[in-house]
Amino acid sequence: MLAHLRIMSVINIFTSMNTTRIAEFANLPRTTNNAEILELSQVGLIKESERSTPHMTYWELTPIGIELLDTYRRLLPTESLIRIDTLKESNRENCFKIINALKESEKTKKALSEQLGIANKELELCLTFLLRTGYLQLDESNDTLYYKLNPNMA
Question: What pTM, to 2 d.p., does this model score?
Answer without folding.
Answer: 0.88
